[in-house]
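Thread title: Can someone regenerate the structure for this chain?

I was given the following input by a collaborator and told the matching structure tokens would be attached. They weren't. Posting the sequence so someone can regenerate them.
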Amino acid sequence: EFRRVLFRSQVRDDILLHEGRDASRLQLLRNAVDPLEFPPPATLSARPRPPELNGASLVVGCVCGIRVEKDLPTLMRAVAALVPECPGLRLVIVGSGPADPQIRTLRSELGLEDVCLLVPQTTRTQPWLQAMDIFVLPSTSEASSNALLEAMSSQCMAVASRIGGNIEIIDSGVNGLLFPAGDVQALTDALRSLIADPARRLALASAGRESVLTKFSPAAAAQAVMDLYKKFLPPATGTK
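Best answer:
Regenerated them for you:
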């Protein structure tokens, strides 16, 4: 009997709505990241900073491909609005892509040359994630983001746009925050509230790490596959 295995509940719901499929024939398996590869820093209240971020009082960041749909301008404009209130605030964007020129131009237009650090794509994202107090994924289109899960595993406070797979990873106010995609003011307000309340920021970051351990770890993914086999394979009748 044929069944489709899906990786996002929104895809499952769309198939049920538009194709009239039998819900029992669709199974959901979640993405996974290894918490051992993306551990939290030893000290959350004073995260380790690379030399490029020395002197930062708080670091907001993102790791992503530099593409239009990642909507990094919304993040940059929110940070620019907060710099006068938080002089030690720094923004780090890790990644490369076709929208690089636009991002560099906007950094200059917003006067963020000394605030916004642009780091080319690297396989060593963990030192940057460990340096970030707040990870923001402002995409206008997103599937199930490994970068978001890696940030949460690193116990960054996670903020993401309320679209796509983000809403399946973040329970807003429980293990992170969601904001309407493209809404600079809403993101600014969310970041302002987290900057002003370190205890809440750390508590949400801790809950984010815990959600990765319980829902999005390799162990959780393996258990989901085992449960799938147990549900649909007939029990063994004996061995020869």
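Strands lie at 4-6, 26-28, 58-63, 89-94, 116-119, 134-137, 157-161, 177-179.
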